[in-house]
Amino acid sequence: MSAMRVDAKVVMLGKESVGKTSLVERYVHHRFLVGPYQNTIGAAFVAKTIQMGEKVVTLGIWDTAGSERYEAMSRIYYRGARAAVVCYDLTDSSSFQRARFWVKELQNCEEHCKIYLCGTKSDLIEGDRSLRQIDYHDVQDFAEEIGAQHFETSSKTGNNVDDIFQKVAEDYNSTAFQYMTEETGIDLGQKKDSYFYTCCHNN
Amino acid sequence: MRSVKTTEQSRLSGIMSQRTERRGIHVDQSDLLCKKGCGYYGNAAWQGLCSKCWREEYQRVRQKQIQDDWALAEKLQREEEAAYASSHGAQTQSHAQSTAPHSVHVSLGPFSKFEEKKTNEKTRKVTTVKKFFSPSSRTAPKKETQEGKSSSPSISRHASFDTDQVSKDFVDFLKNLQKPGREIHKQCRAFIVNMSSKKDLSADELSECVQDFYQNMSDRLMGHFKGSSDSVEQVMDQVEKYIMSRLYKSVFCPETSDDENKDLVTQNRIRALHWVTIQMLCVSMDEEIPEVSENVVKAITDIIEMDSKRVPRDKLGCITRCSKHIFSAIRITMNEPASADDFLPALIYIVLKANPPRLQSNIQYITRFCNPSRLMTGEDGYYFTNLCCAAAFIEKLDAQSLNLSPEEFDRYMSGQASPRFNSSEGDWPHAGSAPDVTATNPVLAQLNHNLELLSGLSSKQERLMEAAQSLQADLLSWPESVQREVHGILEKYPLEIQSCTASAIDANNTDNDNLPPPLTPQVFAG
């Protein structure tokens, strides 16, 4: 597993229990967690290979701890990420406030990171419209404002789950050519800034 | 017909000549004997020597060969040294000069085979020690002398053996690549020599040099392998292994950085946080389950082991193994795969429990000198990032991050209170808390049990000592009492020596008065 080469780092951000892990689990293993599963050791890091026409793109999907107590460290996580899937719970307005926080952080610190807003648990809303706390159009406006993609997903039914990662891979593929020549510059630049240094010690 | 005959003849003569040849050998006994003239028979396979003489001869030749090899290696090393010195300037000129006698001395020693082949790094170090002691170099830079002093002979020999092995592996690996392999080797060596002249650079500059080297190397390889990134990665792993195990000493926790201080700060910080419980961190691991605690122990072992590795990639391997054990522990506890929300707190808990040696130095070392492609995206990179988070969290940890009130936090930090007492006893922090403590913590229970055993043992020991002492006293007084008794008896019954009254039955002088009259024969009528 560790020998697997990964093309792009995709980081999952979102408040605790919005369903980041379920989303990844659904996408990678095509299932929704309701009971004990013995065959996966952890769902925190997965490498997923996607066939894009003739090319193969491997996404390394990083799950992150969403608890507020680790908020200060989130910058260490999304450093060098190509895409960030910022999750919020459609039935929990506070989770969207947190999502806004991450979007702001990403805009400040990772300009090359594409942002994907992802509303989760859409199956709950389909069952009961009154549960929806976050308006679709509000998010759409916000997404346009920040230049992000917007999806509403359900890990239970699988609705839109594949689409969001497919989009991530497509976008990576189309921008990869752009970065190809620039890439060395990026990597070295990051070394020079030594984010690790700042994150671990000066905050 | 004639021709047949002639062939027949020639065949015969052939046999004859063979026979005579054979006979010739058989006849001449001296040819059979050992050429050394020791009297035993020789063997053609041993160049006409007997087994004993052959062994001696062979050993001698081999020894000579080895010595020649040493001489050659020495010569090469001196040349390299000289080249290094001339490129380095006049200051190091003395190195090359002092190196020569030193390496001659080395080649005589029994371990010289190992010493010889490997880097000139150590040689240089030894000479700096020499320089330090020689009167002309009192003004040698402080840094250099420190380094010379810090390398104790046993450690450096061990290390040099390791690097030797690494070089050998590297060369073996490159052999498969043929021409480009030689090119890679040349570049790596040149880079290492180049780096050794840059010891005074700051850690970030060193890192930049190494990263530039990785970048250039992988660009070249990319061209060579026509874009097959798997092969490139494979070669890059070997390159990283080779150069980093060579450079490890000079670039791990370099003196130009304050890594060492940070290590100490972190270490003390973790020590001060010994009271943090698994509940405060919201870790979903139940250490009561034997399998879980087994995994926890393995995770702790792995994270501690990280410090002993030299190559960044091996260090990452330790972190990954540690993380996998944590995942197993969580999965066993919760019966479902762990997410990052479970993993990070558990990792923090493991780091707090393990207090890994030189944590900050190791993190910095990996960040600076690991091949970036591995660090940035792959699975190893993920776990490493989590470790960085854990370290950052521990550094900034405060009351809020443990869901405690600031007062509580301060009291725990100052050691005035322990969370276990409070949580189990509430208002009564002391009275009767012992059983609860043992109930909550198996380690404490074990400790108490051991203490009881120990106190039992010590009381037994005391009793034994008392018994022994009374026995000793008894033993001392026994002869006295026996003596006293004997005296008493002697006094009571004083010894009176009387004339000998013993008599023999057949003595003549016995008076027969007491004896009844002798029987006289009587005659009875009838």
UniProtKB/TrEMBL annotation, chain A:
Family listed: Belongs to the small GTPase superfamily. Rab family.
Metal-binding listed as a keyword: yes
One GO molecular-function entry: metal ion binding
EC number per UniProt: 3.6.5.2
Catalytic activity: GTP + H2O = GDP + phosphate + H(+)
Function: The small GTPases Rab are key regulators of intracellular membrane trafficking, from the formation of transport vesicles to their fusion with membranes. Rabs cycle between an inactive GDP-bound form and an active GTP-bound form that is able to recruit to membranes different sets of downstream effectors directly responsible for vesicle formation, movement, tethering and fusion. RAB24 is an atypical RAB protein that presents low GTPase activity and thereby exists predominantly in the GTP-bound active state. RAB24 is required for the clearance of late autophagic vacuoles under basal conditions.
Pfam families named in the record: Ras
Chief subcellular location: cytoplasm
Keyword set includes Glycosyltransferase: no
GO cellular component, one term: cytosol
PANTHER family found in the cross-reference section: PTHR47978
Protein name, as recorded: Ras-related protein Rab-24
CDD domains: Rab24 (cd04118)
UniProt KW keywords: Autophagy, Cytoplasm, Cytoplasmic vesicle, Cytoskeleton, GTP-binding, Hydrolase, Lipoprotein, Magnesium, Membrane, Metal-binding, Nucleotide-binding, Phosphoprotein, Prenylation, Protein transport, Transport
Topology of this chain in the membrane: Lipid-anchor
Cell compartment(s), UniProt: Cytoplasm, Cytoskeleton, Spindle; Cytoplasm, Cytosol; Cytoplasm, Perinuclear region; Cytoplasmic vesicle, Autophagosome membrane
GO biological process, one term: autophagy
Domain of life: Eukaryota
Cofactor: Mg(2+)
Assembly information from the UniProt record: Interacts with ZFYVE20. Does not interact with the GDP dissociation inhibitors ARHGDIA and ARHGDIB.
TrEMBL record, chain B:
Alphabetical UniProt keywords: Metal-binding, Zinc, Zinc-finger
Record carries keyword rRNA processing: no
GO biological process, one term: vesicle-mediated transport
Listed Polar residues bias regions: 88-101, 148-157
Molecular functions per Gene Ontology: DNA binding; guanyl-nucleotide exchange factor activity; small GTPase binding; zinc ion binding
Residue stretches making up the A20-type domain: 28-62
Region listing for Disordered, in residue ranges: 82-105, 117-161
Domain spans labelled VPS9: 260-403
GO cellular component: cytosol; endocytic vesicle
PROSITE patterns: VPS9, ZF_A20
Name listed for the protein in its UniProt record: Putative rab5 GDP/GTP exchange factor
